[in-house]
Amino acid sequence: MKKRISSTITIIISISIVLTIWFVISYIVKIRTLYVPTPIATFSRLIDLSQTEMFWLDILYSFKRVLIGFGLSFIVAYPLMLVSLLNKNVKKVVFNLVEFFRYLPIPVFIPLTILWFGIGDFGKIFIIFLGTFAQMIPMFYDSANLLNNKFPAFTAALKWKKTDHIKKIIIPGSAPLIMDNARLCFGWAWTYLIIAELLGAENGMGYAIIRAQRYLATDKIFAYIITIGLIGVLIDRSIYFFKNKLFRWQL
Amino acid sequence: MAVIEFKNPVIKYGDFDVIESFDLKIVNGEIITFFGPSGCGKSTLMKGVLNLICPEDPSTISINGKPASQFEFPISYTPQANELLPWLSVRENIGLWSKDSNNDNLNIVNEVIELLDLKEAQDKLPQELSGGMARRTALARCLATKSSIMCLDEVLVGIQRSFRRDLMLNLRTFLKKNSITTIIISHDYEEAVFMSDRIIVLAPSPTLISKPPIKVVEILGENRNMSIFNKPEFELVAKQLIS
């Protein structure tokens, strides 16, 4: 209970700091509202937006893309990580490729994806895939590898094969760590999606921001930025909550 | 024929010889205890059998006539750190080590849960157990494996004194009933005397020295019961061990 109260207090303090700075900038420094809308204008715009169908559709379109892109990335990265654990040569090949991709700035692929796939969903899903799978593999590998040297009695005394060790120890034992890694990667996926939508889309949250920019509707831009942040926090907290519900144990 | 045989294995940690000369034959169904202070090489010898450590010449530690590294069947083992899987309940941990998921498996799991008085804790996770309960779970898991060779490393450490004698009796009965060749590591003279057929007293100096084995079975006999703790013969063996 004490922990919950202290956590709530820290959240309130964090939000208050942001709001105070924002108030100071918009009411005391008095920067033109065209550049920085007031918090009140922004939140009233957000309420107006939430009553439109388009707002929810934009969220839905973005959400669909990020889920597919992230899901595909996970489906490719997780088995590749397991195969890398089984075979050192496969690990070398996979990691050589991954290390190269990991240091590439993903937004530079956006013009290419528009060229290759147009401004439809596929290009954005591809960007999310590129941005997350190369991060996922080493993160997942490190988490799973932590379990490799644990419980040595099993493999030695019981003569378990490496596949048994992976199936019975590494997969279940690393699940909470993998879920934490996935939580971080989901944040990146969300960021890459918005960047991809900003540069070329027909709908979605990023596209909504570009649409608002054309009409100098900064309050709308701010409202969408807040929405993106809130959705991110909501997803992050949800994954964290389910992780704690699913895994009562600690290594 | 000996099931386990040590033929003067040389075991090194880096450049340092831990074991140099140690000769021992353990026959089928025999319970042997390695008794001695910390650091005298008891665990190293056990790890040699488990193939967690390999001697310079692998054939110097053999099981059924083959080097221990080539022994392809599981060996039941209770490591000092328990090594319970934290995501599995007590029952699941015990079941995981036994051979198949059939009725036979279910029976043995129930039997060892009963034997080690773990019925009330069977659905708990390892982190919810006391030290003694975790130790009993590790022992139960070891027994449920039902392999022909068992290695018990300080298995009664952390177990309540009131429960220890009952547990020793049940454990010895189980091992003898199933003809399991067993190596026990212990610091505790009561455990060593009650559980063993033979006790190998070890001392570090700077490499391992083995004194002539104490043949407990010749003094206390094969069958043991609770009254044995009060017999003068028990005291005699215990005194011999302590000296």
| Helix count from the secondary structure assignment of chain B | 8
Based on CA atoms alone, the radius of gyration of chain A comes out at 22 Å
Radius of gyration of chain B: 18 Å
Mean pLDDT of chain A: 88
Helix count of chain A equals 10
Give the C-level CATH assignment of the domain at 1-62 and 166-243 in chain B: Alpha Beta
| CATH superfamily label of the largest domain in chain A | MetI-like
Identify the overall geometry of chain A: globular
Strand content of chain B: 15-25%
| Domain unit count of chain A | 2
Describe this structure in words.
The complex is a heterodimer of chains A (251) and B (243). Chain A is an all-alpha fold and 251 residues long. Chain A folds into two domains: 1-31; 38-246, MetI-like (MetI-like fold, Orthogonal Bundle). Helices cover 82% and strands 0% of the residues of chain A. In chain A, α2 packs across α10. In chain B, 45% of the residues are buried. Chain B has eight helices and twelve strands. Chain B has a domain at 1-62 and 166-243: P-loop containing nucleotide triphosphate hydrolases (Rossmann fold). In chain B, the strands form three sheets. Chain B has a six-stranded mixed sheet, sandwiched between helices.
